[in-house]
Amino acid sequence: MLAGLLAVSLLRGMPAARVAQGSVAVELPILMYHHLLKESSRHGKYVISPDDFAADLDWLLSQGYETVTVGQVIDWANGRGSLPQKPVMITFDDGYESFYEYAFPILQQRNCKAVLSVIGRYADEYTETEDHHINYSHCTWMQIDELAQSGLVEIQNHSYDLHTYDGEKKGSMKVSGEEVIHYQERLRDDVSRMQSLCEYWCGITPTAFTYPFGSVSAEALPVLKEMGFQAALTCLEEVNYLTGDADQLFSLGRFNRPAGKTAQQILQAQS
Ligand SMILES: [Zn+2]
After folding, report:
1. What distance in angstroms lies between residue 22's CA and the mean position of ligand 1's atoms?
2. Residue-range domain boundaries for the chain
3. Over the stretch 19-74, which tens digit does the pLDDT of each residue have?
4. Pairwise CA distance, residues 264 & 52, whole Å
5. Rounded Cα distance, 22 and 264, in Å
6. Domain 2-265 bears CATH identifier 2.60.40.2550
7. CA of 8 to the centre of ligand 1 (A)
């Protein structure tokens, strides 16, 4: 918290680049959401109500927080542009249609930004099928494109089809005993397939990889960098203290926001 206070006081009226070169860190909490549903019987670790999400944003705004995208943080770390005095990042994983239905209008009403990490395989499937139900469907590519063009939602890569756990392969992690070269090829094939789809449908190139289940392998990093990624989102529950070192952006921590624990409770527990 001390670092955060220092950062806030020093950031005031000072170009971010100067802060980046100094030893003062910018405090960046990131919240992680998944699915919004109105029915309370469905709420739990990864499902909360749209009203709770709106209340989180209202509290953050009342405290002077300003929502930022990964792109803004990348730009700042590379000496381009600045960050607000009290940045916070809102992230939604998996690309559920409930983001489009519920979260997007709530963001628009407040002019807040969010990062949506999409799983390519489900975007493909729900673009093809008529079978949509708010309880389980994912966004179509047309919806993702609309979100991307809104200027409020930044689309990021949550793999094409590595969001699975079969008891052996967990997310984008290397399987024990798997040769590094084979692992890296498998990762590259999957992740680049998703990059191409984002380019095809939305005309954008994701800049961050969001590790499925937060499962991180050291061997993934060179592949992600070689593919042009500049950041990665993990599920490590900690506040980020950014010094301006661009490498830090490959291990951004995030707090899961479950039902029954507000953004206020999560962030105040850290101070
Ligand atoms: Zn996920």
Report:
1. 35
2. 2-265
3. 445 557 999 999 999 999 999 999 999 999 999 999 999 999 999 999 999 999 99
4. 11
5. 30
6. no
7. 32
